[in-house]
Each structure stands twice: as C-alpha cells, then as structure tokens.
Design goal:
Blueprint: E1 2-3, H1 17-25, E2 37-46, H2 48-54, E3 58-59, E4 62-63, E5 74-77, E6 85-86, E7 91-97, E8 108-113, E9 118-130, E10 136-138, E11 153-164, E12 169-175, E13 185-191
Antiparallel strand pairs: 1-13, 2-6, 2-7, 2-9, 3-4, 5-11, 8-12, 9-10, 9-11, 12-13
C-alpha cells in the first residue's frame, strides 16, 4: 500500500528541511537548537469505529466498496476522541536531528509486529519533539490528553482493512522528500504469521 501525505511536524519546526540545512550551516557553532530533534511516531490502528469511518462496504444491500478508492489516504484527526484499537507497539517512522546539517531522503524500512489480533485500518501518527537532552514532548493519541494532546494526529488509511493476527508483520518503507513536511511516504505490505 502507498500512503502519500503526512504532516508530521508543526509550526515549531521548519517545514522546509533544505532551508533548515542552510540555516544550520550558517549558525553559530555550539548554539542550542530547540527542538533538538523531532520524530514521527506511530502505531498500527484499527477497530470497528475506524473501519466504519474509513470504509463504506455496503449499505442496505448495495455494495459501495468501490467508493473506498475515493477516500483520502491521509486524515488529520484528533484520534484520542475516537475509540480505536492499538494493534502494535509504538514505533518511530522517521527522525530528524535538527542539530545536524543534513536530512537525507533515504528510504527508512520498518517491520512492525502485530501485538494484538484485530482489524487494522492504517497507521496512527503523532509527533515527538526532543526539546533538549532532558525534555520530550509528544502528542500520542490518548483519551485522557488535555485538548486531545493539542496538535492533531495523522491517520494513514490503508486501501483496505486488514484482518491481522498477533505475530503478523506489517512492512513499511518511509521516505521524506526534504522539501515539505507533508511529503512523507509510506509503503506497506502485510505478512501473515502463517506465511513466515
């Protein structure tokens, strides 16, 4: 599956990584960079509520599943406000060390192990900012988070809901084009435990 856009960042971080590289090259050596680093974090998400939000299937006996192809592949959503199932451990999709002067666009392969059986509809994403060596802020989806964690979350919608079993693998390949924070790409494939 190919999942195209992603807004992993915020107003705190520059959206143009090439311009940020140039700024760092001209910065005072040893100057504090805040935030020091940022990561796009994620987990496999699913459940009936998300499935009903993201996929049409059939209504009153009429098959409308072809309309699923028209649904947006990426949704901005306050995920803490919607019941859903977390189907994996948290994982880092991409990480940028803002103290460095290079942000390579190399593919970042990931292999995510399913930790809970269920219906997987996509990847939930949030940001984690390392403000300094001791202070980390993240807006991981949680119903208990004040104001939903402030920033919106991202939900990468798979083209179809996947029935996954504990131990299955979801292979992802994340890539960023270094120009726009909305340019992260994820490709994925599902490998059932029975085929390993």
């Amino acid at each position: 599956y190919e999942i195209k856009e992603c807004d992993w960042s915020s107003d705190v971080c520059s959206s143009d990584l090439k311009a940020q590289e140039s700024a760092f090259l001209n910065a005072t050596p040893g100057a504090a960079v805040i935030p020091a680093a940022g990561s796009a974090m994620g987990y496999l998400a699913g459940g009936d509520v998300l499935k009903d939000m993201l996929f049409v299937d059939s209504k009153k006996g009429l098959d409308l599943s072809a309309f699923d192809n028209l649904a947006p592949p990426v949704l901005d959503i306050a995920l803490g406000g919607f019941p859903h199932t977390v189907l994996s451990e948290d994982f880092e999709i991409l990480r940028f060390d803002f103290r460095q002067n290079r942000f390579p666009a190399d593919p970042h392969p990931l292999e995510i192990k399913v930790t809970r059986a269920g219906l997987c509809t996509g990847v939930a994403q949030w940001i984690e900012l390392e403000l300094d060596a001791e202070t980390v802020y993240e807006n991981r989806p949680a119903q208990s988070a004040a104001l939903g964690g402030h920033w919106m979350h991202i939900l990468y919608r798979f083209p179809e809901a996947l029935h996954v079993a504990e131990g299955d693998l979801i292979r992802l390949s994340a890539r960023h084009d270094r120009l726009d924070r909305k340019s992260t790409r994820l490709n994925s494939s599902h490998i059932p435990l029975s085929r390993m």
